[in-house]
Design brief:
Layout (H helix, E strand, L loop, with lengths): L1 H8 L2 E2 H10 L22 H4 L2 H16 L5 E5 L5 H12 L6 E5 L3 H14 L2 H4 L2 E4 L7 E8 L8 E6 L2 E9 L5 E7 L2 H14 L8 E4 L3 H9 L2 E13 L1 H4 L10 E4 L2 E3 L10 E3 L2 E2 H10 L3 E7 H7 L2 H11 L3 H15 L1 H5 L2 E8 L20
Parallel strand pairs: 2-3, 2-5, 3-4, 5-10, 10-14
Antiparallel strand pairs: 1-7, 6-7, 6-9, 7-8, 10-16, 11-12, 11-13, 15-16
Helix pairs in contact: 4-5, 4-13, 9-11, 13-14
C-alpha cells in the first residue's frame, strides 16, 4: 500500500507515513489484530502494571465528576487493552461515584472488541451498561473528565532537518530495488515558518545536521477532542519534555522511536504496520494548544508527583494489606517503583492538567500548580 501510494503521488511526507503505519484500516499498527499492550505485546503502559495508576487517576478526578453533576461523563481516549477502564470503573463503583457514561474513544474495531470482552467479563452488567464506545469525539456540549494516557506521543509528526542553514522535511521514498528509504526534500512554507519560529523562541539557530519533530496539528487536535467539554478537566499523561529541553542541541536526531516486542529502536521503516511509532511530547506546545482551546493550565508535573498527590501511598497501603501472599506484595512494590522512580516512569512521564468552567476548582490543592509555566 505504501509503495503504491508513493508510486502514484511521489515521496510521502513522514507525517503521512507515520499516520498510515499506525492507523491505516486493517493494516496499521493500532487497527490490525495483533496484541499491542503488556507482556505479550510491544510495550507496557502504566495501567498494564496493575491497579494503582488507575485508582490514583480516579481519586484525583472524583471531585471534578462530583462538581459536574449527575450528567457528568468520563471520556478515555484510546482504551488500549481495557485495563485502565476496568480498574477505573471498579473504583468508581466502589465509591458510589460512577459517571453517567464512561466513554471510550477507540477507532480500532479490534481493540474495541477486546475492551468490550474484558469489561463484560470483569465487571457487573449494570456497570458495563454505562460504557459507550465512540468513533469520534463528542460533538455536543458535555461535562466531566477527559483522560488520555500515552496518546499524544502517537500523533503523526513532521520530521525536519537543517542542511547548510536551510530547512528540509523528511519524506519516505522507494529506491531502485523497491525498498523504502528516508530522504530530505526542501520544506514547504508552513514547516519552514514553524522551524524559524522555534529558533527565534529558543534564541539560536539549529546547527547543520540537526533533525527533530514538529506536531503542527496539535492545536486542531485538542480543539477537536476537547472543544465541546464546557465544564470539567482534561488530564493528559505522556512522556516528553518542555520545549527548551525537547530541542536541546545535543538531541540531534529528535525523539522518534519505534517499539517492537519490548525493544526500542530507531528505524521507523522496519516492519511497517507492526511497529509502534512514537515521538516525545513537546509539553510547551501542548500547554499552548490547551489554552488556545479555552482551557486553563492547572498544573504540569512529573508522573511521580502527580501520583503522590493523588493518593498513591494510601492506595498502596490498602492493596498491600489486601494482598493474598508475599508474591503479590512484591509485585505491588515493583509496581510503585516502575510508576515513580526517576529512571523508570516517574520522571520520564509528565502529567498535564487543564480545567474549564469550574469555579472554584474542586480538586485537591496538591494538584493545583502555583506556577506551572515556570517548568515550561
Amino acid at each position: 500500500m505504501l509503495r503504491d501510494e508513493i508510486a502514484a503521488h511521489g515521496p510521502m511526507p513522514f507525517e503521512r507515513y507515520m499516520e498510515r503505519c499506525l492507523y491505516a484500516p486493517g493494516l496499521g499498527y493500532y487497527s490490525a489484530g495483533t496484541t499491542k499492550f503488556g507482556a505479550a505485546g510491544d510495550f507496557t503502559t502504566a495501567p498494564e502494571l496493575g491497579e494503582l495508576f488507575a485508582r490514583c487517576v480516579v481519586q484525583a478526578m472524583a471531585p471534578v465528576l462530583a462538581a459536574s453533576g449527575d450528567a457528568a461523563d468520563f471520556l478515555e481516549l484510546g482504551g488500549g487493552s481495557g485495563a485502565f477502564a476496568e480498574v477505573a470503573l471498579r473504583a468508581m463503583d466502589e465509591a458510589d461515584a460512577l459517571p453517567r457514561h464512561y466513554l471510550i474513544l477507540e477507532p480500532s474495531a479490534d481493540l474495541r472488541e477486546r475492551q468490550r470482552e474484558r469489561l463484560s467479563a470483569a465487571l457487573p452488567a449494570d456497570v458495563v451498561a454505562r460504557v459507550q464506545w465512540l468513533d469520534r469525539p463528542p460533538s455536543a456540549a458535555w461535562r466531566g473528565v477527559l483522560f488520555a494516557n500515552e496518546v499524544v506521543d502517537a500523533l503523526p509528526v513532521v520530521r525536519f532537518a537543517i542542511r547548510d542553514g536551510a530547512v528540509f522535511e523528511e519524506v519516505v521514498a522507494v529506491d531502485a530495488d523497491g525498498r523504502l528509504v528516508r530522504e530530505d526534500r526542501p520544506a514547504n512554507g508552513g514547516t519552514e515558518q514553524a522551524v524559524r519560529a522555534l529558533e527565534h523562541e529558543l534564541g539560536a539557530p539549529f546547527a547543520d545536521g540537526y533533525r527533530s519533530e514538529l506536531l503542527p496539528q496539535l492545536a486542531a487536535w485538542i480543539a477537536a477532542i476537547a472543544g465541546p467539554l464546557e465544564a470539567g478537566a482534561m488530564l493528559l499523561v505522556d512522556y516528553g519534555f518542555a520545549r527548551r529541553e525537547y530541542y536541546l542541541p545535543g538531541r540531534r536526531d529528535g525523539t522518534l522511536m519505534a517499539h517492537y516486542r519490548h525493544r526500542a529502536h530507531a528505524d521507523p521503516l522496519y516492519l511497517p504496520g507492526l511497529n509502534d511509532l512514537t515521538a516525545s511530547v513537546d509539553f510547551t506546545a501542548l500547554a499552548e494548544a490547551g489554552e488556545r482551546a479555552g482551557f486553563t493550565l492547572v498544573n504540569y508535573l512529573p508522573q511521580s508527583a502527580f501520583l503522590m498527590a493523588s493518593g498513591l501511598p494510601l492506595a498502596f497501603e490498602a492493596a498491600f494489606a489486601a494482598a493474598p501472599d508475599e508474591a503479590a506484595r512484591y509485585r505491588l512494590a515493583q509496581q510503585v517503583k516502575r510508576l515513580t522512580l526517576p529512571e523508570q516512569m516517574g520522571e520520564r512521564f509528565q502529567a498535564m492538567l487543564f480545567a474549564r468552567g469550574l469555579d472554584p476548582l474542586p480538586i485537591d490543592e496538591d494538584l493545583v500548580g502555583e506556577r506551572p509555566a515556570a517548568r515550561l
